[in-house]
Specification:
mainly alpha, MetI-like fold, 78% helix, 0% strand
């Protein structure tokens, strides 16, 4: 068990290194000159070159990459080209709204989606199963931004139960902080709920057809014990994989939600930085998101050993 955990942690290190190189390279391939953006539209060429030299953009790419990796290892993600603010400081202000929204989505999803998927598999090919799958298909097919606008129209304009947009830090007022997360959390949770329900149903149906399930039922075990103790336990590995994948995808999907509901998270910061060609901010934000995704995948892999001690690396 300890060896498995150590090996998984070690194998995550080259993954992070590859991600850093890819992020660095893709931003350079995408084009755009941040020095020209800073200097302005009518700036002379000598001024642009001077800015490029001050920022180190005139050095060879491999030299820039080496300097950047060295800075990351020392905890320095650089400073914003536009605001001159350290990237870590900017991320510190934006990471709380994004993580809060992601946690809200998980809390709204897991207690509903997994039980519904189990019920749909238990009552497969019945009206209960078909009803759940209809709602799941509808939730899976509606774009997040469109669903967000529908929720704003329904519950912020017609029924003024919730604010249409905005964010309140938890340190300022925790009640308002939770209150303003309801609509953005719900708009994203419906998509994740639909996906997790469908996948849980498919996994449970496959497990319920196994011989040991028929044996458990033939011994007279209650149906609840068969579903929870035998079926769900053996279906936990693929479900954990799906949950981990969904958490990683949330970080990408929340970009749209943050734009619609005006939440000052990492997603909005990345969009603004791309428009301004602010390389340090883009790189820093994407690296933080990548680290979180790799960390989530690592936790999912480690959970395999918890659910099934027979698993080895």
């Amino acid at each position: 068990m300890q060896r498995y955990i150590a090996q998984r942690i070690i194998t995550s290190i080259p993954v992070l290194l590859i991600l850093v190189v890819l992020i660095f390279g893709l931003l350079r391939i995408a084009g755009g000159d941040p020095a020209a953006v800073i200097a302005g539209k009518d700036a002379p060429q000598w001024q642009i070159e001077e800015i490029r030299e001050n920022l180190g953009l005139n050095k060879p790419l491999y030299v820039q990459l080496g300097i950047y990796i060295k800075d990351i290892l020392t905890g320095n993600l650089g400073a914003s080209i536009n605001s001159k603010t350290p990237v870590l400081e900017l991320l510190g202000k934006r990471v709380v709204p994004t993580l809060s929204l992601a946690i809200a989505v998980e809390l709204l999803t897991l207690p509903i989606a997994i039980p519904l998927g189990i019920i749909a598999a238990w009552k497969a090919n019945t009206w209960i199963d078909r009803s759940i799958m209809i709602f799941a298909s509808l939730g899976f097919s509606i774009p997040i931004f469109f669903l967000g606008f529908i929720l704003i129209w329904a519950f912020a304009l017609n029924l003024p139960w919730f604010p249409a947009a905005g964010y309140v830090p938890p340190t300022e007022h925790f009640g308002r902080f939770l209150y303003r997360l309801v609509l953005p959390g719900l708009s994203t949770a419906i998509l994740f709920w639909a996906f997790l329900t469908r996948m849980t149903r498919a996994t449970m149906i496959e497990v319920l057809q196994e011989d040991y399930i028929r044996t458990a039922r033939s011994k007279g075990l209650a149906e609840g014990a068969v579903l929870m103790r035998h079926a769900l336990k053996n279906a936990a590995l693929p479900i954990a994989t799906i949950v981990g994948w969904g958490i990683a995808e949330l970080l990408a999907g929340l970009v749209v939600t943050e734009q619609v509901f005006a939440i000052p998270g990492i997603g909005r910061m990345i969009v603004d930085a791309i428009v301004r060609r602010d390389y340090p901010v883009i790189q820093g934000a994407m690296i933080v998101v990548s680290v979180i995704q790799v960390g989530v995948n690592l936790l999912v892999d480690l959970s395999y050993a918890f659910f099934d001690p027979r698993i080895k690396y």
